[in-house]
């Protein structure tokens, strides 16, 4: 997470390199509407981290996000009816010029790589409204969606029907690379 300011309100947002677009939480959406930001309706194909996908009606608006004193224009999408956290996606990271150093757990701007910033791991504001402004939970205690983590041990041990049905065909359809020994020869020469 990183500290940001939107519509003169401070909070934190999740940096999500797996998200192509930035997402506003329901609370951030309300704050932006109250600040006079106009949202437009749009229809897009959406694929969420929980695996659900399909065409959805979304709201979209562009606003300014302050990040360590820099002002960056950001297009936020809103998923009506979904309780999501505010995410800064690759669209924002690219516009801001953010460079993430996973090994050091820091980030910097591409035009000032010598100046490194730490990620935020807790909600630091004493004001509970501001603390939860852009994020609904601590990164140390991520909330799962209702269906996540619900497979029984027996279900986890059983391969999905799709894999069982298609694996023989997939293995048969893979072309043999040039110079490779036939499958039977490779098995015969295998060292045990």
From TrEMBL:
CDD domains: retropepsin_like. Gene3D superfamilies: Acid Proteases (2.40.70.10). InterPro entries: Peptidase_aspartic_dom_sf. Coiled coil: none annotated. It comes from the Eukaryota. Residues 168-192 are annotated as: Disordered. It holds the Pfam family gag-asp_proteas. SUPFAM superfamilies: Acid proteases. This is SFRICE_036816.
